[in-house]
Amino acid sequence: MLPVRRAALGAVGRRGAPTGLRTMVHMDSEYVSPLNGAPRLPSPWNKWFPYEPVPCSPQLAPYQVKCNAGETYNWCACGECRTQPWCEDNGGPNGCRSRGFAAEKYHPRHTGLKLICGCKHCGSKPLTNGTCFLVWADNNVIQASGVAFLSCFAFGLVSTWFAHP
Fold first, then answer.
1. Cα–Cα distances in angstroms (integers) from residue 111 to residues 10, 57, 86, 102, in the given order
2. Beta bridge partners of 67
3. What is the pLDDT of residues 16-27, one digit of tens each?
4. pLDDT of 160
5. How far is CA 107 from CA 68, 72, 74, 75, 104, in A?
6. Contact predicate 135/21, CB 8 Å
7. Could you tell me if 72 and 105 are in contact, meaning their C-beta atoms sit under 8 angstroms apart?
8. Per-domain boundaries in the chain
């Protein structure tokens, strides 16, 4: 189904009663992980190419994790492991592989806090690159529009105050 048609059906619902915006965000039972309750939020790419696997998104913000140099970590790529952001089975057959994904190995060069992707859509896996915010904005359009308006308004006020003689 095309995204425009899905949006039009989301305003009416299945039984004809008006519904909220939550129907547009795939909150059906088939899109929620039975293991940890994470929703499966497809990206715009997955809306047009529906046969690629879509990971669950346990949180739409990065995890702050303390990592030690020299250790090997297995990042959960499916989003359904209970030990987020790491894979339950250390990349074995009972973890992400049983759900059709391969756990990403991560070898930190330095000990310290790392920002690990929580939405499972980042291109720089397992480290975050800001895609978590874009996934949030894609699924929360009204709130994202409000944030964008307020940030542009604040920037306009500050820049006008600096530029005024």
1. 47, 26, 17, 25
2. 112
3. 333 333 333 443
4. 94
5. 9, 5, 9, 10, 10
6. no
7. yes
8. 55-163
Q: Which residues of 96-131 are buried (b: 16+ CB within 10 A; e: fewer)?
A: bbebebebbebebeeeeebbbbbbbbbeebbebeeb
What would the two tokens of residue 151 be? Answer: 């940030």
**C-alpha closest to that of 46 among 60, 28, 31, 29:** 31
Please give the backbone phi and psi of residue 46, each rounded to the nearest 5 degrees, phi first. Answer: -70, -20
Q: How many CB atoms within 10 Å of residue 40? A: 20
More confident residue, 130 or 20: 130
Question: Which band of pLDDT confidence, cut at 50, 70 and 90, is reported for residue 15?
Answer: very low
pTM as predicted: 0.69
The answer to whether 26 touches 42, Cβ cutoff 8 Å, is yes
